[in-house]
Amino acid sequence: MAIASSQLAPADFIQIARSIEEEVGKIIVGQDEVVRGILTCVLAGGHALLEGVPGLGKTMLVRTLSEVLDLSFSRLQFTPDLMPADITGTNVISEDGGLRGFQFQPGPLFANLVLADEINRATPKTQSALLEAMQEQRVTVAKTSYPLERPFFVMATQNPIEMEGTYPLPEAQLDRFFYKLNVSYPSEDELLRIAQRTTTGRPPEVRPVADGPTVLAMLELAREVPIAEPVLKFAVRLTTRTHPDRPASPESTRRYVRYGASPRGLQSLVLGSKIRAILEGRFNVRRRAAAV
Questions:
Q1: How far apart are CA 142 and CA 91, in angstroms?
Q2: Per-residue pLDDT averaged across 229-254, rounded?
């Protein structure tokens, strides 16, 4: 059931978020931090990059999330021969009443949740076709812009061990991901639970606990979480300390970092802290780390 932002209370936010994690947990064993990270990206209106070896359930995780959130889902298998028009859509010739003309045929990007599987296997030209969609939530084809339906999220995966025939993601695209999440190998206990769930009986099923309007309402509520100016200034100092050319930056930054975080990184830090606060039952952001 859709919930308007004016009707959504913090208690509703927490209850829905926990229900989402519980439903995803029926399919995905372990990976609690990854699930929380993806949920944070969704509630912040951001995008996530999942990195892990094959077989860890990255694709299944994103697909399960789309079912729990009752969102339209589209999967893109990135390959070197994939062209930008294959994902954005293209104009095709159509005939209506004897008159021929061009009609736009939407591509797989026109979905609420888009899985870009093995995104680093596509050429930079195709990778760049995602930039406008990820930042502006629209697609431009032949000088005409087409808005994407909100909410819109891109969940991309990449394999860190098989680099032959891959193309590193441009920094401009990496900067548009809210989080990069490392999907680790499960423990022995988790492997046992995976085997018990997937090789015996009927696989578990999930139920939708939220929809698009509800997600948008949660997104708006998360942005309303207050953050004091001293805490915000702390986040600013933390961001500027990642720049090696700043006098106050630590020696480790000047030695190992070439370029620091952008203002978009600061926005992600603040939004992520607001969502984490409300998920932990707090109604403001407070600083826990030592002063910088």
A1: 8
A2: 91
E strand map for the chain: 48-51, 73-77, 89-96, 99-106, 113-117, 138-141, 144-147, 153-158, 179-182
Rg (CA), the chain: 21
β-strands 113-117, 73-77: how paired? parallel
Closest CA to 82 of 125, 49, 111, 144: 125
The torsion of the CA quartet 282, 287, 290, 292, rounded to 10 degrees, works out to 160
- Which segments of 71-199 does DSSP mark as H helices, in order? 84-88, 124-136, 171-174, 188-199
* Average pLDDT estimate for 259-279: 90
Beta strands 138-141 and 144-147 are antiparallel
Residue length, the chain?
Answer: 292
CA distance 81 to 73: 23
The average pLDDT across 252-259 equals 88
Looking at residue 6, its pLDDT comes to: 52
Q: What is the DSSP string of 118-135?
A: TGGGS-HHHHHHHHHHHH
What is the architecture of the domain spanning 5-224? 3-Layer(aba) Sandwich (3.40)
Task: Sketch the domain layout of the chain as residue ranges.
Answer: 5-224, 225-292
Residue from 65, 56, 66, 62 nearest 30 by CA: 56
What residue has token string 């926990």? Answer: 18
User: How do residues 114-139 score in pLDDT, each as one tens digit?
Assistant: 999 888 888 888 888 888 888 888 88
Rounded average pLDDT over 84-104: 79
DSSP-assigned letter for residue 77:
E
State pLDDT tens for residues 8-67: 888 899 999 999 999 998 888 888 899 999 999 999 999 999 988 888 888 888 889 999
166, 177, 183, 154: which is closest to 267 by C-alpha? 177
Q: Which residue has the tokens 């769930």?
A: 197
Topology of 225-292 in CATH?
A: Helicase, Ruva Protein; domain 3 (1.10.8)
